[in-house]
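=== RUN LOG ===
request id: a7f3
mode: sequence -> structure
chains: 1
length: 151
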Amino acid sequence: MLDRLLEISELFQKDMARAFDGTPLTAARIRLLWELQHSGPSTQHALATSLGVSPRNITGLVDALEAGGYVTRSPHPSDRRATIVSLAASAQEMMREMQREHAELSATLLDAVDAADRAALERGVDAIAGRLRELIAADEARRADRIEVGA
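=== RESULT ===
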């Protein structure tokens, strides 16, 4: 089963690469745009935390997206040191279209599964994703403990 999950992951990556070929959008940049679409305008610090990347990495992502006209920066209303990152108007439309396309793809993919099996499939995928998150968190905690002990 793991082989099938890995194959599905690879197919999604190929599909995304094909969809954004010829644009400056990478998987990391798209993740940032999705985060803004779902959470709304955010500080760079909040984006780095929610995406699990370093502040330096988020700065590079935001710089590239701003240069491409996908996001805008504005001063934080109460923290002079912080900047608010928002989707640009053109990116808002692109993200709405992307959400529509994702809903269509989701429906198309679920059509491959017998209607009586769909609820079980969704529960199973949720359970697998949850377990994988737990395993990753436990591994990260073990690594942090080893680094702390070695320090």
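=== NOTES ===
Residues 72 and 86 are 5 Å apart (CA to CA).
The first strand starts at residue 42 and ends at 43.
=== END ===
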